Amino acid sequence: MKRIVVLVSGRGSNMQAIVQRCADDGWPAAVVAVLANRPDAQGLEFARQRGIATAVVDHKLFAAREEFDAALARAIDGFSPDLVVLAGFMRILGAAFVRHYEGRLLNIHPSLLPAFAGLHTHRRALAAGCKAVGASVHFVTPELDHGPIVIQSVVPVRPGDDEERLAARVLATEHIIYPLAVRWFVEDKLELAGDLVRQRDGASQVLM
Ligand code: GAR
Q1: 47 vs 11, 41, 104, 202, CA distance in Å?
Q2: Total domain count for the chain?
Q3: Do 138 and 194 share a domain, yes or no?
Q4: Residue 43 belongs to domain spanning
Q5: What is the pLDDT of residues 21-68, one digit of tens each?
Q6: 150 alpha carbon to ligand 1 midpoint, in Å?
Q7: Among 101, 130, 162, where does a domain finish?
Q8: Whether the CB of 13 sits within 6 Å of ligand 1
Q9: Is any atom of ligand 1 closer than 6 Å to the C-beta of 123?
Q10: pTM, full prediction
Q11: 110: CA distance to ligand 1 center in Å?
């Protein structure tokens, strides 16, 4: 049974999708804790209602990023995770933290990486005239929103789309691809070779 720790900063809809699929589909895994860097993160309430352990490591209480990272890692490691899942976790994590979880730290980003790392992805994609956007699940490396890509979703941009509509359409696909990527991880279906990730069964790593 693999132990999953999920980190959120806000709403936590991706975390909820993962918790739900894990329970409904009987993964050989359990979400053992949900951690947040904000005491008011809405996702915490969902976890509490589900009887999942929660903890807050409030970044505002730390003077330096390294101190926050170290406290966060201590809190995470208290749950002995096999996998750490960043699900809308909006703090940049330092290289030492990332290295500590190398090969067992996943993130989702609402763009077709390597395009549009960072914030305001949908706004920037619309301004660039992109005809397709999407989301990417990737292993985390020290470079922001960068690292071996596990799966991507591709979503068409429609006439009249604004940032909000596009974000909602992409988010619906995030709720499919993130649980799938986590499932592959806990079922040992992912093979990591340098910058590339292969799904051992040859399952499609793109949702269109
Ligand atoms: C999601 O769209 C996720 O891709 C994005 O934040 C949102 C969190 O929603 N993550 C990032 O931008 C990370 N760089 P959620 O809290 O409802 O899962």
Answers
A1: 11, 11, 21, 33
A2: 2
A3: yes
A4: 1-101
A5: 999 999 999 999 999 999 999 999 999 999 999 999 999 999 999 999
A6: 17
A7: 101
A8: yes
A9: no
A10: 0.98
A11: 7
